[in-house]
Each structure stands twice: as structure tokens, then as C-alpha cells.
Automatic annotation (TrEMBL):
Residues 211-275 form the Signal transduction histidine kinase subgroup 3 dimerisation and phosphoacceptor domain. Its EC number is 2.7.13.3. InterPro entries: HATPase_C_sf, Sensor_HK_TwoCompSys, Sig_transdc_His_kin_sub3_dim/P. GO terms for molecular function: ATP binding; phosphorelay sensor kinase activity; protein dimerization activity. The chain crosses the membrane at residues 12-35, 47-69, 111-137, 157-183. It is an enzyme of class 2 (transferase). The gene is uhpB. Keywords: ATP-binding, Kinase, Membrane, Nucleotide-binding, Phosphoprotein, Transferase, Transmembrane, Transmembrane helix, Two-component regulatory system. It holds the Pfam family HisKA_3. One of its GO terms (cellular component) is membrane. It catalyses: ATP + protein L-histidine = ADP + protein N-phospho-L-histidine. It comes from the Bacteria. This is histidine kinase. The keyword Transferase applies. It comes from Streptomyces hundungensis.
């Protein structure tokens, strides 16, 4: 009973009736085509001509299903009434011809099956009511006796209510079977085509790239700021009673670093709030300010014209230097750092050096992601980066092609 009259069966019946309603305009066009050929006989008074008009209407429905916007409209109806897994259906208009043909096949099947079931739903219920009440009304029995058919006998009239109830169950069974058929066909014909799967994979890859970029931006900006603040606070604590001037400078540097980090954090989070374009991010022109706030003695030299560096390369170079200074703060203590930035023909070269600490640095459990992030940034631009010990010093070197911005 639930399979025939339950909520899902009723929803699918409504979906089929909607298909029958959608068939009517095409059926009327079919009657216009068939009537002149039939010699003036109306398809509305001739069942064979109605079937011919029905067959003529289906190609017009198939052509309508080729419109790209048809798929999201049909998918919405299936999701609302068909009881089909929403994840198995495609989103967005059908772009490829393969997808359009599949949508056209679904739409034609929907209106054809819906048209047949709608006709049954209009014709059978009144007749079943007539059969059920037939034994109880003498006037109806007289009509049945004079018809000369199966209902003209006493047994025919006695069994008429059972026949009517059987017809209702038969209609419900046909509706359930047709609904189940369409539910089975929906994922095949309205599901994602290979082109849709490729587009979805590209969108997923783009979203993953954005998340990775956000992770790098947050790691570089916040990690650098915390390292700088920790170093400045530690140095100020050691000389709190002996060098008040240095303490004031350290506190000012902490304040400036925190303020700058908040601005950068807002900039990074802006990537999540904005649909088009990126918010302004630091570049090579901001390196001098970054070096002055680090809390380290940094010998900074710049060769070439930084304004000739593309925006993307300039931004990534800033982040690489920021991460390199963070590593120097965490692992090198207060050792001086030498930073060289050279803008040459076709590439930007970053070299950062600092002496190795006298004792092994404290390493976080699982290791950090800074050097890996530097290598990823360089690789995405078509360049390369390396880091390691040379002659008792730690050296970080990155080469970024200026054409990598393309």
C-alpha cells in the first residue's frame, strides 16, 4: 500500500501529471499538423488520430529539450518530486551536445509517459466511481442492462465494485511503475556528463588552490609576526631594568608589528569575502618596512628596478622573504641576516644568509611548513628555491622568473 499510495508515490504521480501538462502545447501543434491530413476529422473525436497527434508532438518536445537551460529546470523538478538522490544529478545548463541529447531524451520520455498517465488519470477515476456505485442505483443498473456488455448480467453488476477498485489499484500500480522508471532514468540522463565532471574537477582544483594560498598567506604573515613579537618581548624582558630606551623601542616594534599583522590578516581574509579580484597585498616595495620591524640586524641590498617586477612575482617574493626572516628569528636567534634582492634580465633572485646558532634550535613537533611553502611558491611561478647550510651559514636562495606571472 505504501508503494502504491505513499508520499513518494503521490509525489511521483504529481511529477508525471506535470509532464502530461507540459505535453499539451506540443499535442495541440500535433493536432494542427494532423487535422488537414485527416480530411477534417478532429483528433479530439478520433482516438487513432489522437494517437497520431501524440506521436507527432514528441519530436517537438525533443527539440525543446535541447535548450541548455532546460536541464536545471528539469533537475529542480526531479529533486523536488522524484525522490532521486540530488548528488546524482547535474547542476547548471547543459553545455555539450552529449549532455543536451541526454536531457532531450529525458524530457521526451517525461512528457510521453506523463501524457499517457494523465489521460489514464482523467478517464479511469470517473469510470471506477460508476462501477463502484452501480449496484446501489436502479437507474444506473437499467443503463448497464441495456448496454449489452459484461455489465448487462446480474453477476457483472455484482462484481462491478470489485472491478472498479481493481482499476484504481491498477492505475496506482501504473503510476508507481512509471515513477520508478523515471527515477531510474534520471541519474543516467540528467546526471553529469564527462564535460560536467571535468568542469567540476577544475572548480575543485581551483578551490583547493585558493585554500592552499590562504594557508600560506596566514602562515607567512601571522607566523612571522609572532616570531618577531616573541623575539622583541624576550629581548625587552632581559634588559627591562638596565636599558629602558631599548625596552621602549622593542615595545614600539611589537606594537607596529601587531598593527601591520592585523592589516595583513584582514587582507588575507578578504580573499574569502570577495568574489572578484584580490585585495591589496604587500610587495617588494614594502620589504624595507618589513626588515625594519623584524627585530634583527638585517643588511638589506637591492639591485635593479623593483617596479619592473610583475605584481604576482613581487607579492610572492615578499612572502618568501617574510618566511625566511621568520625562520631566522626562530632558529638563528639574534644573529645578523644578509638579504640580497636582485632584479635581473628575466628573473628575480632572492638570497638570505645568517650564521648557524651555537645550539640546536627547538623544532616544533611534526616540523614546520615554511620551507615547503617557499618551494611551492617558487614552483608555481616556474622557478625554484633551495635552503641549507653552506660554509657554516644558513642560506636560502630563490629564483623567480619574471614571466611566471603569466
Amino acid at each position: 500500500m505504501r508503494a502504491l499510495f505513499g508520499a513518494r508515490a503521490r509525489h511521483r504521480w504529481v511529477h508525471l501529471v506535470i509532464g502530461g501538462a507540459l505535453l499539451m502545447p506540443y499535442f495541440l501543434v500535433g493536432t494542427v499538423v494532423v487535422s488537414p491530413v485527416a480530411g477534417g476529422v478532429s483528433p479530439f473525436t478520433s482516438f487513432p488520430l489522437a494517437l497520431v497527434s501524440f506521436a507527432v508532438a514528441l519530436p517537438f518536445a525533443a527539440v525543446s529539450g535541447l535548450v541548455p537551460i532546460a536541464r536545471p529546470l528539469l533537475v529542480f523538478g526531479v529533486r523536488a518530486l522524484g525522490g532521486v538522490d540530488p548528488a546524482a544529478l547535474a547542476d547548471g545548463p547543459a553545455r555539450s551536445w552529449e549532455a543536451r541529447l541526454r536531457v532531450s531524451a529525458w524530457y521526451t520520455t517525461h512528457v510521453a509517459v506523463g501524457g499517457i498517465l494523465s489521460g489514464m488519470s482523467l478517464a479511469l477515476p470517473p469510470f471506477t466511481v460508476f462501477l463502484i456505485v452501480l449496484p446501489f442505483f436502479p437507474g444506473l443498473r437499467h443503463t448497464a442492462y441495456s448496454s449489452g456488455g459484461p455489465l448487462s448480467t446480474g453477476w457483472g453488476i455484482a462484481l462491478a465494485p470489485m472491478a472498479g477498485i481493481a482499476m484504481l489499484f491498477g492505475l496506482a500500480a501504473c503510476s508507481a511503475a512509471a515513477g520508478a522508471l523515471l527515477a531510474r532514468l534520471a541519474p543516467l540522463l540528467l546526471g553529469p556528463a564527462p564535460a560536467d565532471r571535468l568542469a567540476a574537477a577544475e572548480r575543485q582544483a581551483a578551490e583547493l588552490a585558493v585554500r592552499n594560498r590562504l594557508a600560506r598567506e596566514l602562515h607567512d604573515s601571522v607566523g612571522h609576526a609572532l616570531s618577531a613579537v616573541t623575539l622583541q618581548a624576550s629581548a625587552a624582558r632581559r634588559v627591562l631594568d638596565s636599558d629602558r630606551a631599548f625596552v621602549r623601542e622593542a615595545l614600539a616594534a611589537i606594537e607596529e608589528t601587531a598593527r601591520r599583522t592585523v592589516d595583513e590578516l584582514d587582507s588575507v581574509l578578504g580573499l574569502l569575502r570577495q568574489d572578484d579580484g584580490d585585495p591589496a597585498t604587500p610587495d617588494l616595495a614594502a620589504l624595507q618596512g618589513l626588515v625594519s620591524r623584524t627585530g634583527l640586524k638585517v643588511a638589506y641590498s637591492l639591485e635593479g628596478d623593483p617596479s619592473s617586477v610583475p605584481e604576482l612575482v613581487s607579492r610572492e617574493a615578499y612572502r618568501i622573504v617574510q618566511e625566511g626572516l621568520s625562520n631566522a628569528l626562530r632558529h638563528g636567534g639574534s644573529s645578523p641576516v644578509a638579504l640580497q634582492v636582485a632584479v635581473g634580465d628575466g628573473e628575480l633572485v632572492l638570497v638570505m644568509e645568517n650564521p648557524l646558532p651555537s645550539r640546536a634550535p627547538v623544532v616544533r613537533p611534526g616540523g614546520g611548513r615554511g620551507l615547503r611553502g617557499i618551494a611551492e611558491r617558487a614552483a608555481l611561478l616556474g622557478g625554484h628555491a633551495s635552503a641549507g647550510t653552506e660554509d657554516g651559514r644558513w642560506r636560502l636562495r630563490a629564483c623567480l622568473p619574471l614571466g611566471g606571472a603569466r
